[in-house]
């Protein structure tokens, strides 16, 4: 149906007196709108001919035909040709429809911004922007947001001018926008935030100021979710964000799966662990759990893991639905890697889910981007996952090849990229994979120099552990390791990680003290020269008798002193060779609380397994005291028997 706004513009074009006669204009528009709603397209021409001059009728019907023709076009090239032929007839409704058609038919590889016809359309739109009503303006803004999702790099001045004018015009319209239009515009502004040179935050703050005046009137779940998402993306106004949380709680029974997933995602981005809202979301999810779509499931799993919010029933459902969806091929690589990452982050050991994720990668590895792949590798390494034969023989070579290929394709390295690749390589090391090209690349001086401004202490310690593992475990002398300067820098970062005695350690240490006969025979929280700390260190002679460790080993031996020299010795294997010919055995007792294990499992996590391997290769005999064994001991005789078995019957 043609809009009354279109009729007005056509009347103006033909100079009809109704334009200047307000009463007559209103009467004309009212009769036009009410009648046109009742007619099929076949009868429109006859109706128009009866009531309006033939010249006006021809124009109205011609524009109707233009809309119909535009609707039928299905690719950007034909749409741009249509714009070129008919732009002189363009009214606001046709402009909005053109952008909508281009958005839905735009291919990632299609360089739309550089097309002259598109640039002309943008110029025309700037000229007619104020003629758009609010609904048309929101529709146009949504289409432009869709372009940004596919290509955010804008170089043409006319295209950039349109985005700037959209911002300016939107700010003038905010007070008249409905709640629905405000929430939708907030979503659009967040998409625009990726465009350089746009002062997007200013306009978003202006929108937030309007929302603040009527925040309690937002009762629609979609509007609440859109606004919370926008605020969380730019970390804006915690007060309004919390007021919207209360609106979400008040209207939680209206929320559908998509709105729930957006609110969860927003909470995770904002880092706001609102227990009242999360509890309400849990209850609502359990009520509509069978309606959750694959994408909502992935988003909710990711958000719950980010917020460290765990529900057995919900995660059990997510596991079952994910396995079903992987089998039906209804999940994208991003969703699969997000879900597996969520389970790994919660230390939830699900061998069946991890296996399904690995097999999906094997069959669809060409569709995994750098984010998906690095997230998958990190999750598997964290959980110390072992893929069974014969799949494991294919899996790691394909993983490593895909990772190296994706690194080569990166036009520029982002801060996120450096963190991802370091973390993924560290995870491969945990799983005893030592890809020489990849390790040499990330341990090179150039990569370290480029990455240093963006990496945290976490990545610094991972780089050191990659280097140490390569020396101790790989057996490949062709791999380029850290330079002495970088080695010293990263081991110092590793040594800087400090921990306090856990409640389990506070129970175990007094028992050890009594068992060995005083602090003459043990050291507590020992900092080794290789970065690792040891909970308790003992010495045993060849006959398994305790030796006074503080009298035999100088204090400097177990500290971080003279790091560079000790690591140099390590590279030449002097340290490891000499430690195997000593007259005593160094014992490292590691006291392991629940954080070292998978959830509801006795399975050690990856970082703990790697530490055990490295300490063993560095000359310590590692004895682990897990919490689930210690908590079963009821009295001193039982504790003595337990320690005697651990120490002397090894």
TrEMBL record:
Where is the major localization of this protein?
mitochondrion
Q: Which organism is it from?
A: Trichoplax adhaerens
Q: Name one GO molecular function term.
A: RNA binding
Query: InterPro entries this protein is in?
Result: FAST_2, FAST_kinase, FAST_Leu-rich, RAP, RESC6_dom
**What are the entry keywords?**
Mitochondrion, Signal
| Pfam families from the UniProt entry | FAST_1, FAST_2, RAP, RESC6
Q: Where is the signal peptide?
A: 1-18
Q: Name one GO biological process term.
A: mitochondrial RNA processing
- Spell out the protein name for this chain: RAP domain-containing protein
List locations, semicolon-separated: Mitochondrion
